[in-house]
Amino acid sequence: MNEKVGMVSLGCAKNQVDAEMMLYTLRQSGYTIVTDPAMADVVIVNTCGFIESAKQESINEIIELGKLKKEGRIKGIVVTGCLAERYQHMIKEELYETDCVLGIGANKSIADAVAECLKGEQQELYPDKYLCPLDGGRIQSTPHHYAYLKLGDGCDNRCTYCAIPMIRGKFRSRTMENILNEARTLVANGVKELILIAQDVTRYGMDLYGEYRLPLLLKELCRIEELKWIRLLYCYPDAVTDELIDCIATEEKILHYIDLPLQHCNDRILKRMNRRGNKKQIMEVITKLRARIPDIIIRTTFICGFPGETEEEFTELSEFVQEMKFERMGCFAYSREEDTPAYHFPDQIDEEVKEKRAEILMEQQMTIMEQYCQSLIGKTLEVVCEGFDRYAQCYFGRSKADSPDVDGKIFFRAEETNPPTIGEFVNVKIDDYLDCDPVGVMV
Hints:
Layout: E1 4-9, H1 13-28, E2 32-34, E3 42-47, H2 52-70, E4 76-81, H3 82-87, H4 89-94, E5 100-102, H5 110-118, E6 123-125, E7 146-150, E8 152-153, H6 164-168, E9 172-173, H7 176-188, E10 193-197, H8 206-209, H9 214-221, E11 229-232, H10 242-250, E12 254-263, H11 267-272, H12 279-292, E13 297-304, H13 311-324, E14 328-333, H14 351-376, E15 380-389, E16 394-398, E17 410-413, E18 425-434, E19 437-442
Parallel strand pairs: 1-2, 1-3, 3-4, 4-5, 5-6, 7-10, 10-11, 11-12, 12-13, 13-14, 17-19
Antiparallel strand pairs: 8-9, 15-16, 15-18, 16-17, 18-19
């Protein structure tokens, strides 16, 4: 068999892991995997269906690939992922370019779907979403030195703005043994940094073991000898326990970096969002983290313009951001998603107002980031080299403060006689910053 398959995976890192498992299934079935979709016989679009902008990106990708198909350059298009699971039969009705549509429960059937495409057949499969595999072989699509480690799938939080529980179902943890085996395999293949992900990483183990097992899992991961960094994403503040904070503080391999998706600080809005906890509890968690781990990097995200958010409540959020001085922050205008409770809430806010509020918060964050970058000047940071920027004529990489794709980079110069290699950890002395990205020299 010499048929070629390409994959375009959109959305979050959790979706990317699903894509990596599908690619492994395809390779085991004899297909050749190509990185350029234009060189493929069949292209898979692993879609995101979380918010409107992500849905539109997925639709645009399918339409563009449809042009290649019309030109005869590719033979078929398979649509998988969250958009396919969420809208199912509507995909083929609205996007005639599509040949096969698979819900997430059909990911194991990806090779059969490609075979149907190659025969010119149409197919739609929407089995139970809980058949979506949590583990399996993967073709790593990230650079060799880091990989995402998925602890589970689905979500029990039921935030009123979010469609994920509808798309992915209830939270399901993988067994600890299963996760550790995959981690050992990834590290044996050269991975130095594991980035732990799930819809709610802090909930790990509750469904299987009846208790939070993240601290115990972290300690077991730290025993993997060649592993250097462990990074935590998607940690809900109400489940950041003293045990977890102590674990981050005392285990050398766990980076002093945590992602806390807070979404808002006003108690009324948090309640309408169906978020657990309140402003006081959020501030207590942040205070504990910074007291126990003084150099902790806290990343968060906020939603602006949630239905009914008053000017006073937005001002409270704005002041909260200025007071907390998060080292990393993202902000999104509320996306009104059908089939979520918040879709039907009264007092929906105009798009222009939502966007303006998000813009104000991000402008504030730029000032905070500049102050943070200034505090780094003169310091020496451990940086993993990730490439050479031909335009800037210098190398770039990430420190403990930078998660791939969502955070910035560190640019640095190095002597021509001692160039770093991709994946190598080097020391960089910071002497400047540009657009909130630190700049320095390898020492």
